Amino acid sequence: MTSPLLQVEDLCTHFFTRAGVAKAVDGVSFSLARGEILGLVGESGSGKSVTGFSILGLVDPPGRIVTGRVLFDGRDLASLDDEKLRAIRGKRIAMIFQDPMMTLNPVLRIDTQMVEAVLAHSSVSRQAALERCRQVLSMVGIPAPDERLASYPHHFSGGMRQRVAIAIALLHEPDLIIADEPTTALDVTIQAQILAEVQKLAAQTGTALIWISHDLAVVSALADRIAVMYAGRIVEQARAADVIEAPLHPYTRGLIDSVPSRNRRGSPLRQITGMAPSILNLPKGCAFRLRCPRADSVCLEAPSEVEHRPSQWARCFHSHLADARADVLA
Amino acid sequence: MTAIMDIAGVSKRFVHELDTAERIARALGARVEERTVHAVEAVDLTIASGEVLGLVGESGCGKSTLGRMVAGLLTPSEGAIRFRGADIAKLTGKAARESALKVQMIFQDPMSSLNPRLRVGTIVGEAPVVHSIVTRAERDGYVAEMLSHVGLDPEMLRRYPHQFSGGQRQRIGIARALAVKPEFLVCDEAVAALDVSIQAQVLNLFMRLRETFDLTYLFISHDLGVVEHISDRIAVMYLGRIVEEGPTEAIFAAANHPYTQALLAERPVIAPGKRQFSTIRGEIPSPLKPPPGCHFHPRCPHAFARCRTERPALREIAPGRLSACHLNEAS
Amino acid sequence: MSDTAINGVTLEEPAIDATPRASLRNVLAALLEDRLAMLGCVLVILTAIAAIGAPWIAPQNPYDLGSLDILDGGLAPGSQSMSGRTYWLGTDEQGRDMLSAILYGLRVSLTVAGLATLIALAIGMAAGISAAYFGRFVDTIIMRIVDLQLGFPSILIALILLAVLGRGVDKVIIALVLAQWAYYARVVRGSALVENQKDYVAAARCLALSNTRIMARHLLPNCLSPLIVVATVQIAHAISLEATLSFLGVGVPITEPSLGLLIANGYDYLLSGRYWVAVFPGVALLLIIVGVNLVGDRLRDILNPRLAR
Fold first, then answer.
1. What is the pTM of this model?
2. CA-to-CA distance for A242 and B29, rounded, in angstroms?
3. Model pLDDT, residue A180
């Protein structure tokens, strides 16, 4: 078995704010094989985006990586200095953001920006760089790339901009792409187009992908494996099909059950009671305890990840109660 | 079933007028045109008392604009919106105010829909006191009652909006709307900004309130799953026009219009196993320059010559089902 | 979007009042963190105390001609008077104690500038918010008047007005108000335009609240932040404008001299060796303006939601 491309070990990223210490990521561990697609799922405040940022060292003060290792091809990214990290960012690990305007500079033409990105990591002629740009633009399904190259970002729609952002990510044939909610702000039909492109590309280029999203549906269609995050920790990790068909953790179960399409039309939706805790003030023990239908006194101890079934991990003392369901409110 | 809201031939155009420099340029012969956004085009819609009409569409389709016109925040460029038979644009004085209070709106963004400088008690209680629904002395008690209807602790009325989460703020917004005793609620993407688990709570709240207060909803959303769950009937909009309308189950079972079919086919559902995404090509056109004829023809896999020139009328293809597609007349 | 946004990632803090808000307490705390701003605060507070407490602090009432002794005229700083009192900052030609004159002068300067700023603020806010809320015709009219007025330097406007109105403290205040309101109007309009687009204003209209109520209770409180910053700096500007006018001889009358007038009086003696008559009021003026500007600068940084704190 080949060694994993990315191995995150016990990653902790905390934000030291005036209001207290926000433990955005609190002991996250997972690994990613070459060419694998991992879906990182969670709601707001779960820490999924911060995990993505932490891998690339993009966390700004008042936040920083407190402990943990991020082993990329054997090297610990968390311990690298800025120069070495910069050599890796964009070249071997690329990132796509929710808002494409976080990637694109509104005052520069597309070709200027893309050529700049090419030349940042390889010294080739401008002509060669442009040729590479045309190549990636057609890879993401943009016809007539020359016209697009000569335009500015504001000439494009949101979907088109996101495609350009994905193209930029592909310029150096990275081993890993981290995508942070890239289709959340897009319409359904455009989202479908982008997802289709991404699927095709991942198969073609063999790039590993971490797809961060709150949308279980998108992730279930795209990913090989899914990791579900809650309050800064991974609460369930398994093959995508297993997570969807037979989730172990009550939160995952509740999440799937609360989606309208999984409920009978017109009847009250099954819901998870209460709200996610503030990461400034996590409850003792299991963070989900106060909302969990299966919780009891045992849950006052923080559970660790246990492999309940082959390749299916869950952070819960009651995972063996596979049939318990989330609360129904009349 | 009585029609409580009647939208007849309503259009809304946003005209970006020429400024002085551009007018001079035009006088000198430059081809400068006024930019007009056809946000809503000749929409006919009736909503019966007690029903939930889901309005679905993607960005630029005009659903939010239509919602705002129904709520009285925008005036139509053409056509009339009649609430209980009275044209809301033509009412004045007391009648206008009473009609306005009966139609309330729940907004999309919980962060900007509450005045950050006011306490919750004032946010919810201001209008009832101003409109003499309750006296100033009764205000706090009334607000407490409203808050408990929406599932919030009545003690919260002393707090400020920033002390609440997104889901809670939406509930406060709902309480604010309920406090003026409305009959009709326009929910403009009311759950779009919420997490999935909170979304379920708020949707359940909507359904419960509908029963308790005998409300009628215009539920605007881009999320087909949500709309399918909560609506009795749905109307699908594309670039300012209604392209399909009918009972929810019928449409989800067998959509007629190619756009609806594409929407239904492309939405991701939670199911095990990776799926191939097959897509309709093309971008959503800009409402500044909509394609001639049928707005959807550039992206429609079944488009033919007539689609490029003639706008399809919204025709009844089955009892209670309407669709605007030339393909229906092929037979 | 949410209150704490770091790296563009929103950290949702549900149910707990954990986010640092721009409340008075937090603002003051943040203000005092910066040493320069603290210095500015100290200067402002000291001058305010001096100005308010002038009748009690000042060793002498400089307007009471009976208490002046012409024989004490023109004494250097630190000299003793006939009656054993020390003139810490010297005296002017008529024997007026400069320290007392400065204290009383501060009073006039601050009162005039403060009142003028408040009134200009009120007028400017009303105009700016109305322009933003009603839009179209009202906006055009108000903003064209504002543009017209801002096209002229404020000193010019004040001079013209005073030439028409004549002398007197109240006339000076009117002139300052008319010279300044336009700036507030423009700033408020910018804020109000942004707030007007927000859903809570739409909600207020949906609830059939009156226009006045929406403007006063919903728009106004949310437009105050940038306004406070502008007003703070504008007070300094008003003080210096009033000083300029008085220096030029069209400002406050001699019976109630402000710092500007004191400087004007001492101007003639500047080169003849009796520098203290002009310099000390000048230094006082400088200190108050610098103090207010320091506070205003820091306030602007604190209240700016985009700058990371």
1. 0.83
2. 68
3. 92
The complex scores an ipTM of 0.88
Mean pLDDT score, B300-329: 87
Q: Do C202 and B127 touch (CB under 8 A)?
A: no
Q: What length is written for chain A?
A: 330
Whether C12 sits inside 8 A of A281 (CB atoms) is no
Does residue A87 register a pLDDT over 70?
Answer: yes
User: Contact, C154 vs C175, CB < 8 A?
Assistant: no
Angstrom distance (rounded) from CA C261 to CA C111:
15
Tokens of A67: 């402990």
Q: How far apart are CA C278 and CA C285, in angstroms?
A: 11
Question: Nearest Cβ partner of B165 from C15, C206, C210?
Answer: C15
| pLDDT surpassing 80 at residue A134 | yes
Q: Do B164 and C221 touch (CB under 8 A)?
A: no
What domains appear along chain B, each with residue ranges and CATH number? 3-329 (3.40.50.300)
| CATH architecture, domain A34-46+81-228 | 3-Layer(aba) Sandwich (3.40)
The domain limits of chain A are 34-46+81-228
* Interchain CB contact of A195 with B (< 8 Å): yes
Q: For chain B, report the end-to-end CA distance as a whole number of angstroms.
A: 32
CA A296 remoteness from chain centre:
32
Nearest to B156 by CA among C15, A279, C4, A280: C15
H or E segment to which residue B95 belongs: helix B93-102
Name the residue among B73, B115, B130 with its Cβ closest to that of C218: B115
> Contact at 8 Å (CB) between B37 and B288?
yes
Compute the distance between CA of residue B323 and CA of residue B236 in angstroms, rounded to an integer: 9
- Tell me: the pLDDT tens digits for A171-207? 998 999 999 998 887 888 888 888 888 888 888 888 9
Cα distance between residue A129 and residue A214, in whole Å = 36
More confident residue, A290 or A228: A228
Q: Specify the DSSP element, H or E, that contains A221.
A: helix A216-222
Listed residue (C41, C205, C231) closest to C121, CA to CA: C231
Q: Cβ–Cβ of B199/A258 closer than 8 Å? A: yes
Give the model's pLDDT for residue B219. 95
C10 touches chain A (CB under 8 A): yes
Taking chain C, what is the end-to-end CA distance rounded to the nearest angstrom?
16
Instruction: Give the sheet arrangement for strand B78-83, strand by strand.
Output: B35-48, B3-16, B78-83, B86-87
Q: What single letter denotes the amino acid at residue A328?
A: V
Subunit partners of chain B (3 or more CB pairs within 8 A):
A, C
* Bridge partner residues of A63 (DSSP): A15
Rounded distance, CA B82 to CA A52, Å? 51
CA C272 from centroid of its chain's CA atoms: 34
Residue type, A62: P
Contact C109/C263 with Cβ under 8 angstroms?
Answer: no
Q: What is the DSSP letter of C218?
A: I
Q: Using only C-alpha atoms, what is the Rg of chain B?
A: 22
H/E run at residue A86: helix A82-88
The single-letter DSSP state of residue A89 is B
Average pLDDT of chain C is: 80
Q: Report the pLDDT averaged over residues B181-188.
A: 95
Find tokens 């308790």 and name the residue. B212
CB contact at 8 A, B14 and B36: yes
Structure confidence by residue, pLDDT tens digits, C228-253 = 888 888 888 888 888 888 888 888 88
Unique residue bearing structure tokens 């999440």 = A255
User: Does residue B38 surpass a pLDDT of 60?
Assistant: yes
Q: How many CB atoms lie within 10 A of CB C37?
A: 21
CB-based burial of residue B246 (10 Å sphere; 0-12 exposed, 13-18 middle, 19+ buried)?
buried
Contact B229 A195 (CB under 8 A): no
User: Which numeric CATH code is attached to C30-59+86-303?
Assistant: 1.10.3720.10
In terms of C-beta density within 10 A (0-12 exposed, 13-18 middle, 19 or more buried), how is residue B208 classed? middle
